[in-house]
Amino acid sequence: GYYPDDQNKANQDSYSVTHDFAGQTADAFFGVYDGHGRDGDKCAQFVRDTLPTLLAEGMTKARENNDGAELTKERKQAIILNAHRECNMKMHSQDDFDDSLSGTTSISVYLHGNTNRITVSNVGDSRTIIGRQMQTSEVENGSSSSGGALKAFALSRDQTPYRRDERVRIRRTGGRILSLDQIEGLEPIREDEKERDEKALMNGGGEDIILGEEIDESGDPPRVWSPNGDYPGTAFTRSIGDAIAEELGVHADPEMLSRELTPEDKIIVIASDGVFEFLTNQSVIDICAKFSDPLEACRAVVAESYELWLQYELRTDDITIICLFLDSVDASKILRGPLALSTTEMVGESLNKDDALVSGSTRPVRKNISLEKSRALEKMKAEMNSVHDVTTETEEDFDMEALFNEKTEEEKTCIAEAIRASVVFQKITNSQRELLYKVMEPMKVKAGQWIIKQGTLGDRFYIVQFGTFEVRIVSEGAEDAEGTGGNVVHVYEGSREKDQHPCFGELALMYSTPRAASIIAKTDGMLWALHRFAFKKVTAERGSREGAVEILKKIDQLKGFSPDGLEDLASYLCEAKYAKGDVLIRQGEVGESIFVMLPGGGAEDLVQTKEDGSDERTLSDNDYFGEEILEMRSQKRYGSTVKATGKISCWTLSRSDVKRASRRSSKE
Questions:
Q1: Cβ of 306: how many Cβ atoms within 10 Å?
Q2: Is-contact 491 522, C-beta < 8 A?
Q3: N or C: which end of the chain has fewer CB within 10 A?
């Protein structure tokens, strides 16, 4: 992962791949371990080295006591449970590292080759999914629509406070479930939540994920806390290690699922939660399905995950993935007919499911930038505007038709495969897709050429046709004295031969925000570029920006804009987020941006005042403020102060962008 405040931070993920497992040539064991806490890297490595060994010893001994005969599913799961518990106890007794506030998740797939079965064991919030080949009629909206497409199913359930059954279990042990904002008093604590969860669980409602959905979109999930203090704050409810959290119910007992493999099962993915923070299960399977080599599939998923982390956060998580391609499953070994969902049987603290596919995931996929990222982008944009009131680059009238260029079928396939897993493109129609092909600009690049420069406004999304490109970042407060673009944090590699076409800059299609990193060509290559305005015209975006246009119409200082000019102006709107206590504008200060509130953005948590205390008011949906800085005779200073009394999400529009749009409008 990339951590700007600790660039030498150890990778806390680990993994294991063991063939000929427990002396069986047809068996294999695959595991991913995601460490956390100060000694998280040592915890993950310990489990990597210890758990497979304990499990193999247990299986070998059990077979010997069973005269070499195949063990039952129940016997295998009992051995797996004991191996996890023993591994946890051994970790507690280690002298070379401290697991009191450190530990690791563990997600594993035990392949029983002779019987075409797998056993998935999960501790924590890493995940295993499977891609099954479906008929066209079986594929849901949002996934691939061609015949024989792969549909994603979860083979594990994230053990987090998003799950009602896990919340109830933790509370019964004495733990508290709260978000950081609730701990700090920024969000209310619902006193009746414990009772509601208990009743819902008794009525069979164990999969509720309503808790924290909005909180998670800002990167603040519900966590486990002691009743005696603000610790340990784990965002998961099971772990190997974490001795202090174990007293609150965060134990090492795995949930297990055993099922047979069928000829329809094509891909199995085992990955740490860094993969699934911004990617859905289906997106991951869609990416993997583009490749014939599982290693290339892993690289593509990691690249896409890494790019999304850089777009929506100031850092990236450690990311680990194992991808299994099931080339052939011997149907003669299958004991049953078509698989069906079965009921869940709780045995002690261990979940056993026989031949079941887990419906859905239990943690929302994040789609918005974090509060910290929003602040960093606002600061970066302010620094840009302090140097240039209006950027020196003036845009000519945007003529989408001037971009039209025909693509070969091979080129269309490349573009289609590259954007298939992206949320931004999932709802486009076939006609819109064809239009996107036309407006994608081919860009031949030379080694050393800068494609994106950190801190500049982004207006294009890129797909790598071929070539190698470095992602470089200059840390906040540091200077790029040598002009290299900073440290290399990631590398994109495109190849026509390997059908590998990563993409970057997706955020530029949605917001006019400064680039968070520089991207420099390491080799000669070729890119496909999509301009934000072309994307906007193709998709004819509706919804919130249409609502913003209606608000912009009401602002006196913007009366001179035509309807088309206002739509153009709305494309410059940037999303911004603020926390309780933040001052959005301060009376008397020179202002750069105006603010627009849309429904659901928390306008009721904004208070506008003047220095003399007059005209104090609470804002509402569809309000705007700060518009006085647009007046020609104004000294561009704010006439009031607006302060957040809660969490706020709004649009901002800079004065420089208004000037830029005005110049464009005057040429029409």
A1: 24
A2: yes
A3: C
Matching residue, tokens 């069973």:
66
Asked if 131 contacts 96 with a C-beta cutoff of 8 angstroms, the reply is no
Q: Looking up tokens 């819902």, which residue turns up?
A: 200
| Encoded tokens for 560 | 């001179």
Residue 338, preceding bond cis, omega within 30 degrees? no
Please state the φ and ψ torsions of residue 272, each to the nearest 5 degrees: -75, 165
- Any residues with CB less than 8 A from the CB of 35 and at least 6 apart, and which? 12, 13, 14, 41, 42, 43, 44, 45, 102, 103, 104
Q: Is 115 helix (H, G, I), strand (E, B) or coil?
A: helix
The residue ranges of DSSP E strands in 105-227, in sequence order, are: 106-112, 117-123, 127-133, 150-154, 176-178, 223-225
Provide the CB-side half-sphere exposure for 174 (13 A, CA): 9
Query: Strand 487-494 to strand 583-585: parallel, antiparallel, or no bridges (unpaired)?
Result: unpaired
Q: β-pairing, 350-354 with 255-260?
A: parallel
Q: What percent of the chain has pLDDT over 70?
A: 79
CB 509 within 8 A of CB 523: no
Q: What 3-state DSSP class applies to 219?
A: coil
Radius of gyration of the chain measured on its C-alpha atoms = 27
Strand partners, 624: 596
Cβ partners under 8 Å of residue 659, min gap 6: 389, 390
Which of 33-37, 383-387, 489-493 comes out lowest in average pLDDT?
A: 383-387
Tens-digit pLDDT profile for residues 377-405: 565 555 544 433 333 334 446 677 778 88
Helix (H/G/I), strand (E/B), else coil: 594: strand
Q: How far apart are CA 120 and CA 107, in angstroms?
A: 7
Give pLDDT tens digits for 44-95: 999 999 999 999 999 999 999 988 788 999 999 999 999 999 999 999 999 9
Q: Are 499 and 417 in contact (CB under 8 A)?
A: yes
Q: List pLDDT tens digits, range 145-157.
A: 344 589 999 999 9
**If residue 460 lies in a helix (H) or strand (E), which one and from where to where?**
strand 460-473
Token pair for residue 356? 């079941």
Place of tokens 């309000």: 623
**Residue 354 to residue 340: CA distance in whole angstroms:** 10
Residue 662 backbone class (left: φ over 0; alpha: ψ -120 to 50; beta: rest): alpha
174 phi-psi bin (left φ>0, alpha ψ -120 to 50, beta other): left
What pLDDT, in 10s, does the model give residues 330-346?
655 544 433 333 223 33
Diameter of the chain measured on Cα atoms:
94
Per DSSP bridges, beta strands 487-494 and 460-473 are antiparallel
- What Å distances lie between residue 537 and 237, 257, 279, 386, 441, CA to CA? 46, 47, 26, 31, 15
* Residue 657: exposure state from Cβ atoms within 10 A (0-12, 13-18, ≥19): buried
Reduced 3-state DSSP string for 290-302: CCCCHHHHHHHHH
- Residue 20 makes CB contacts below 8 A (sequence gap 6+) with 27, 28
Residues 6+ apart with CB under 8 A from 264: 132, 133, 134
Nearest to 513, CA basis, from 651, 394, 644: 651
Among 284, 278, 282, smallest CA distance to 306 is for: 278
The pair phi, psi for residue 472, each rounded to 5°, is: -125, 145
Q: What is the dihedral of CA 154, 2, 372, 385, to 10 degrees?
A: -130
3-state SS, residue 8: coil
Tokens representing 554 are 């009401």
Distance CA 587, CA 606 (A): 15
